[in-house]
Amino acid sequence: AMPSASKGPIFAILLMLVPAALPFSLTSATSRAVPLKQRAVSPIALDEAREKLVKGGLPVKFAERVSFQTAGAKTAGQEDQILILWREFKKCYKSEAVALEMLSKNTAVILPSLNSPRKIKGTFALLNKRLGKAQATDVVTKNPGVLICSPESLKKQSDAEIVKAADFVATLDANKPVINAVAGAVWFSIIGAFAYRIGTVGASPPGT
């Protein structure tokens, strides 16, 4: 049966919104259906800045992400600064593999506009001095973003506050799929309410 005239606006809005979500489901379904060896792998074309980061030891996916994050505030020689930050950041972890895993949580730690080698080195030293090596390592593992704080600002926080903040970040990270699902549900409920409002207003005579 055809939708009634009063529901027309709702269906029109939903039809405009649904196609935007289709590429995600289609991409996912296609990737599952086509064997890995049959998929065409397109070569990654790197610009000069990204290429410099990759040659400096930063994996392509991070070079792409960092380049995107600094697109609106690029400065001369920033690639060198990013690599210096990356090398200093790596010193806070037992291996480069662990450092890369932590970097995937928060690439802001190697953005020159937000961080400096002095902050990373000073904050990590302060954490080790106050918490001991084991707990300091636990804190920077749960919350790599703490390394963006300056030693001066961190001195104002108690040991308990620093540890609680790291635990909170770790909890958010562990529940990211749930948080994303809830955020998506809220977003679609807002869209549904918006569509319903337009539909009811459009169906009501003026002045009612």
Automatic annotation (TrEMBL):
Superkingdom of origin organism: Eukaryota
* Record keywords, A-Z: Signal
The stretch of residues making up the signal peptide is 1-23
Listed name of the protein:
PSI-F
Q: Which taxonomic lineage is given here?
A: Eukaryota, Haptista, Haptophyta, Prymnesiophyceae, Coccolithales
